[in-house]
Amino acid sequence: MYPTALTQLARANPFSAPLFSLQRAEELQQTPAAGPATRRLAAAATADDVSCAFGSNKYYAMCGFGGILSCGLTHTAVVPLDLVKCRLQVDPDKYKSIGNGFRLTVREDGARGLAKGWAPTFIGYSMQGLCKFGFYEVFKIFYSDLMGEENTYLWRTSLYLAASASAEFFADIALAPMEACKVRIQTKPGYANTLRECAPKMYAEEGVWAFYKGVVPLWMRQIPYTMMKFACFERTVELLYKYAVPKPRSECSKSEQLVVTFTAGYIAGVFCAIVSHPADSVVSVLNKESGSTASQVLKKLGPRGVWKGLVARIIMIGTLTALQWFIYDSVKVYFRLPRPPPPEMPESLKKKLGLTE
Q1: What is the CA radius of gyration of the chain?
Q2: Has this prediction a pTM greater than 0.90?
Q3: Cβ 165 vs Cβ 227: under 8 Å
Q4: For an engineered disulfide with 269, which of 22, 23, 114, 318 has Cβ 3.0 to 4.6 Å away?
Q5: In residue terms, where are the Solcar repeats (predicted)?
């Protein structure tokens, strides 16, 4: 009964693509264990290879630090492109294209004008990265332990989606105030040129609500984006090692593994940009205009307006996501954190499916 029941369960999961093949699996090499341990999504690296235990407080703290570097540095680096993208979204009559947007910005504000909003970008996305990557690791391990070893493998994509959505909920609360300041600086000429000017002015005009009125559309933009970012990345890494990389991950050097990380990150980034772009357009306009609501902005933009600036965002988010994963994984390598390999079918599940002798 096990093969039939478990196969039907896996096929019923809408997020389980690609479905594992029910073929006779090769016997895995067994490594000696010091004692019984709870197996999570994937076994952590060997103890003599790492600086801390998988799932320890130090592990979570260092993952959060990796998130600060990966998100804070990359988002700040693409501020000029982000500025032009925001202006395309909120004033399409003036800014016709990416090239036109850059030319007009330099003509009106000089080259320094392209760096407007760098401070709230760095602070806001550093805080977001801390919560996004740190809480993702926390929720992934927490949900995996609740599900158990076999269900974790069968429903692993659903696990990635749930863990990333949970993490992003808190990450956006941390990001919202700085995102509101950034958009106001970048899209409202003459309002403010620095964070020190912008934040007090917004508070004086609208109170605390000025910094959080965009949090709901931010959730609409960032939660689907992050779910795609993490789930697509995790499954792409799995597929690359299975079908594209000519040797097992354990035989790849650290630099080769980071190339796989960058490639999977870029692929995930393209899908992220498409999924989250309509909500991104709403956030940009909402933070520019005082007194508007998300539904009013959506009606004003229309079906075509919400897709303005998509090409710029694909370029930006694709590169950004690839670099974020590369930096995050590099931090793990540098500090010798556990880096579990792609998940493999548990031995207990193989026995139930009759895949072992």
Answers
A1: 22
A2: no
A3: yes
A4: 318
A5: 58-142, 155-239, 256-334
